[in-house]
TrEMBL record:
Residues 209-354 form the AAA+ ATPase domain. The chain holds residues 1 to 472 of 563 of the full protein. This is GTPase Der. Belongs to the TRAFAC class TrmE-Era-EngA-EngB-Septin-like GTPase superfamily. EngA (Der) GTPase family. It comes from Emiliania huxleyi (strain CCMP1516). One of its GO terms (molecular function) is ribosome binding.
């Protein structure tokens, strides 16, 4: 017993040191015996990395058994976070505010995502109410629904417990999530919500509210010309924004009343010039594009429609898709092409960049300015779609109806069913479909799901990540 406790502390300490400050934190709080340790163990067990520690909390049916703060790492759908089991409500009772301050709970982004776990059978008592009133203060005033607190009703494995769960609305912490930490019921849905909330808070705290548009393309496609057309004299006086690399420069730009950050890699040609080979220039341009793309939400991919596609174009286009960025393909130098040649160029783009099928191809001329506004409008629309959160209820109604019209296939003797769908608040739109069981999804089914989604919410110029999961 002594050895276990010592070992456990060591694990906790090294995890603290390794992960402190880098991964978002989920703090599980609740009354003694609400099931915090069981849930902690379930969450920490979901991690996929074999290298990491898998500390285990001590679980026993006696109230108040877990006294130490336990900390471990978890992962859900590729998103890593730390989990801390706060070790019982008794720690909160004396000086809850000072404890909150010590844990930096007041200060986002260090402020953890809090999960209040209540035993649905026991219901919410005075202790929970006190704790809930403290936790309500952690919610941002401007958006109480997006608060730093989630509420879960544990031990919902019996019917009467589920009844009791409805009383928990009175805690003022929003919808209680139904859970049985012991049997895993509801844990996938809870993890979906935890990760979505963490990602939303992260995006807010990193100032990702300003849309970032990168202008990328190989040398000579017309990036400088396009930026000059947009920025005019301004370009000469803008200050580089901190945090961008020397290969790319970002400047603030206002488009139809909305602030954008334009990331510009046009300077690369002049930096790398000086008798160097074209291939060398191309390599430098692809490297600069990689950085710019990683920083942006939407890539304006410039192509030279007069000259045609090259390997460097394909390389840059590949980077855009690889990083799941929205994309507007600008077929530049349209002033040198007739209608038939433009159509032929669009066809060659579709044929040689099939993976960018979500990106519209717009013909433009940086020289005359034709089509430039439309390209920026499309980029702005992509930015708006990236931020769009589809209401869970409407999403589920859509797929319930769609499955009636077109049932999913029968695989290994049983029909596949989508139990529910949810959108994660990820930087690029991600939809998770909870299935009745684990099965490989046929590409035609995946395409049908995407078409169905886009027929209601077009997500212009934006790739969608679709994940099909069965309960763990
Ligand atoms: P960058 O290397 O991508 O920044 O390309 P530049 O903007 O420097 O343009 C390369 C060359 O293409 C220059 O000679 C431009 O004048 C020319 N160019 C750029 N855009 C257009 C266009 O829309 N039409 C025509 N005809 N020429 C263009």
């Amino acid at each position: 017993m002594l050895l276990t406790r010592t070992k456990r502390r060591l694990c906790t300490a090294s995890l603290d040191a390794a992960a402190a400050g880098s991964l978002p934190l989920l703090a599980i709080v609740g009354a003694p015996n609400a099931g915090k340790s069981t849930l902690y163990n379930r969450l920490v067990r979901t991690e996929l990395s074999a290298r990491s520690f898998r500390p285990r909390a001590l679980v026993a049916p006696t109230a108040g058994t877990t006294r130490d703060r336990m900390e471990g790492e978890s992962e859900w759908l590729g998103y890593r976070f730390r989990v801390v089991d706060t070790g019982g409500i008794e720690h909160f009772q004396d000086k809850p505010v000072s404890l909150a301050a010590r844990s930096r709970w007041h200060a986002p982004p260090a402020c953890p995502q809090v999960l209040l776990l209540v035993d649905a059978k026991a219901g919410a008592g005075a202790a929970e109410e006190r704790l809930a009133s403290l936790l309500r203060r952690l919610r941002p005033v401007h958006d109480p629904s997006a608060g730093a607190v989630l509420l879960a009703a544990n031990k919902c494995d019996s019917r009467e417990a589920r009844h009791g769960m409805h009383e928990l609305w009175s805690l003022g912490l929003g919808e209680p999530r139904l859970l049985s930490a012991l049997h895993g019921v509801g844990s996938a849905e809870l993890l979906d919500d935890v990760v979505a909330a963490m990602q939303r808070r992260e995006a807010e705290s990193t100032g990702d509210a300003v849309g970032k548009v990168a202008v990328v393309g190989r040398p000579n496609v017309g990036k400088s010309s396009l930026l000059n057309a947009l920025l005019g004299q301004e370009r000469m006086v803008v200050n580089p924004v901190a945090g961008t690399t020397r290969d790319s420069v970002a400047c603030e730009y206002e488009w139809r009343g909305e602030k954008l950050l334009l990331i510009d890699t046009a300077g690369i040609r002049r930096q790398a010039a000086g008798g160097e080979e074209r291939e060398e220039l191309d390599r430098a341009a692809v490297a600069a594009a990689r950085v710019a793309i990683s920083q942006c939400h939407v890539a304006l991919l410039l192509l030279d429609a007069y000259q045609g596609l090259t390997r460097a174009d394909l390389a840059i286009a590949g980077l855009v898709t690889e990083q799941q960025k929205s994309c507007v393909i600008v077929a530049n130098k349209a002033d040198r092409l007739d209608a038939a040649a433009r159509r032929a160029f669009s066809d060659s783009v579709r044929e040689r960049m099939p993976w960018l099928d979500y990106a519209p191809v717009l013909h433009a001329s940086a020289l005359t300015g034709a089509g430039v506004d439309e390209a920026l409008d499309t980029a702005a629309s992509a930015l708006a779609w990236r931020r769009t959160k589809v209401p869970k209820r409407r999403l589920n109604e859509l797929f319930a109806r769609a499955q009636l019209l077109r049932p999913l296939p029968v695989v290994r003797g049983a029909r596949l069913k989508m139990q529910y769908a949810t959108q994660h608040a990820t930087e690029s739109p991600t939809f998770v479909f909870r299935m009745n069981r684990q099965a490989e999804m046929h590409p035609s089914v995946v395409r049908w799901v995407e078409r169905t989604l886009r027929s209601h919410w077009p997500f212009d110029a934006t790739p969608l990540r679709l994940v099909f999961k069965a309960d763990p």
